[in-house]
Structure formats: structure tokens, C-alpha cells
Amino acid sequence: MEITRVGVVGAGLMGAGIAEVSARVAADVVLCETDPDAIVAARTRIETSLDRGVRAGKLQESQRDEVFDRVRFTSDLGELADCQLVVEAVREVEDEKVEVFRALDRIVNDEHAILASNTSSIPIMRLGMATARPEFVIGLHFFNPVPVMRLVELIPSIVTSDDVDARAEDFVAKRLGKRVIRSRDRAGFIVNALLIPYILAAIRMLESGFASAEDIDDGMVQGCSHPMGPLALADLVGLDTTKSVAESMYAEFKEPLYAPPPLLARMVDAGLLGRKRGRGFFDYAQ
Predict the structure, then answer these.
(1) What is the model's pLDDT at position 286?
(2) Strands 151-156 and 114-117
(3) Catalytic residue of the set 192, 244, 247, 248
(4) Is 226 in the active site?
């Protein structure tokens, strides 16, 4: 059963990107967001990305218009009722995600619909148990920016059905053309289980006064050939998201290396969230 109707809940960076790549493969997409400003920002973000594709010769102007027209923006979750795949992409806050899945369970009326989460750390079983159909719930963790990054982590829970697993992988790998890697359902999955301790170690190094932010990042870029340093990467991911992922992993494993450093907590409290706010460990103000 080919997936042609896709819903996305949350119109931030990730939600807009997931909506765009789905529309690019001829799926009809409903992008749901309750914040009017976020909807405006998502429209602009998708238009800008598609325009970039035209300039790069990857899309014709007519194709750009067709793709954009396949995305319908709404604040009404009820418009996702007939979707065959719904991807939740709200903030990395477990209570908020659980509420979305409870609502989707009531609203989505296709009995074979896949309910997926773009969570980067929260165990899928917890989200699945917010529904009466946990066998249809799976994790699809995309990476930012979604139209550019090829990787998607696929995370079935211990009760996700084999059919849902296969259909989700088929859509992501064959339709979207992404590289799928599989993870067991444990907090952090594969990428963040490796990445978050690395980022937190850099924050602790800065917090202790051991080295400057610039020197920490230059050390990893120039010494290890990383495309960007750990502090710049945290700014790109978002310090609030970094903190939430760390807290989720620490709650599950109680390993000290997963505990958010006080400096990270204070920066989040101050609203210094990285690139999206213009300032984090580095200043991005124009």
C-alpha cells in the first residue's frame, strides 16, 4: 500500500523539512501547527529551500510550484484524519509528544496508518503506549537540514508490527531516498548516544575554564577533520534540544556522562539557545 497522504505535526525546522521532502516525492502533505508565526516561518522556509533547488538546477520552476502546492498548512489536527503516515515533530519534550500521540490516536481514522515520531531521544514505547495501537507507532529520526541530510534512524519499539516497520522503511529508503540505519528502542538511539556525551564533554571543558570555545572547536575541526566543532554543533542543534536529549538519556541510564552540565542549563534558562535565537556558545547576530 503506497503512502501518498502524509501528515506532519509541528512546523519547526524539522517539521518543515519533513513536509518538503515528502511533497518532493509526490505525496500530499498536511503540515499542522498551532502557532501562526511558525506556519508563516515554515512557508518561507520551504519556499526558500525549493528556490535554492531551482538555482542549483535540481528542480524546474514548474516542479517547485507543484511541490509547494502539495503542502497544505493548517492549525487543525483533525485535517490529518485520512493520512496514511503521520510524523510528529514537536519540541523534544516527552509530555508534549505524548499528548500529540493521544490526539492522533483519536483523530487518524485509517486503521493501517503509521504514527511516527521524529524524536531524537525519547523511547518509542512510551509514545506508543499513549495510543490504543502501539503496534503502529515507530520512530523516524530525521536530521537537520532534512532536505540535505540523507540519514534517518528507524526505531521500532518491542511491539511495533513487522508490517509497519517494513512500510516505514520502504517510504523513507525507496521513496525519500534516505539512508536508513536501525536502532533498538533505547534513549538516544545510535547517533545521539555517541554525539551527546561528546558535546557535553566540550561544554564541561568550557565551563571549567580549561579552554576557550574557539579553541575547543578549532581543536576538533583542525585536529580531527570534523566539519564543525562540538559547541557550534550544539548551537546548530539548539541548546534546549541538546539539554532535553541529555536529560532523557540520563533518566534512562543514570550515567554521569549524560547529565547536562550546569552551564548548559543556565544558557537554556537565559534563552541562549544557539543559532535559532542568534546566540549560544557563539554569536550569530547580524
Answers:
(1) 66
(2) unpaired
(3) 192
(4) no
